[in-house]
Amino acid sequence: MGRVRRRHLRAGRPDHVRELLQPRDHLRRHGPLGPRWRPRLIRRTIGPTTQAPARAVVPEGGAVTRNSPKPGSGSTAGLRAKLRVPSGGGPVRLRSHDPRGTPGGPAGKTEALESVPYARDRITALQERLFAQSTAGDPRSVLVVLQGMDTSGKGGSVRHLASLLDPAGCRITAFKAPTAEEKAHHFLWRVERAMPGPGRIGVFDRSHYEDVLVPRVRGRAPLSVWEERCETINSFEASLADDGVSVVKVFLHISRDEQRTRLLARLDNPCKHWKFGPADLEDRARWAAYQQAYGDVLGRCSTEAAPWYVVPADRKWYRNWAVGRLLMEHLDLIDPVCPPASFDVEAARKQLLED
Question: Which domains are present in the chain?
Answer without folding.
Answer: 2-45+54-337 (3.40.50.300)
